[in-house]
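Collaborator request, handled under Task 6.
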Amino acid sequence: MRITRRDGLKYLGATGLVTLAGSPLLAQTEETAEPMEHMIEMLNQDPENPRLRQVYNPRILHIQPGDTVTWVSVDRGHNSEVDEDMMPEDGTMWEGAINEDISVVMEVEGAYGYFCTPHRTAGMVALLLVGNELANYEDLKDVRQRGQAARIWDAIFEEADPMVEEIRANAAS
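Structure tokens returned to the collaborator:
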């Protein structure tokens, strides 16, 4: 039996979830939690909906400041680059090379839009929410997009709006 890199990542992720299930890490508050590592796959095709092409999985991720995000080049031809118009002031910059994994420690709170350089207008875009202070989130909606990216951003914001409301409500309480 041949195990692909994608299958290996899935097994590794499932093992990590099982390992964390009984861990006190999940019971920690955001202030006391150790920084975590998160993985985002760069794919030619969505594993849940094969009709969706050129995707990040997941396409929306909420993390805490100090956490590390690694974009994994599961399928060739992709990278991750922050959109300079879709990030907080003094936010974390990154630009990964095509076909290479990139890891970034996210220190500055806020909302970050990012894209795959060769597939941006094809709609390979995604959203990273860092922390609870998401003051720039609404500003991201005003950034002009081209091609399929405009349609994908509309869907991302529709999905993210309730998440952002919940994050803000939890932060206020």
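The cover message to the collaborator said: "The domain at 35-172 is CATH 2.60.40.420 (Immunoglobulin-like). The chain has one domain: 35-172. Please let us know whether this matches your experimental observations."
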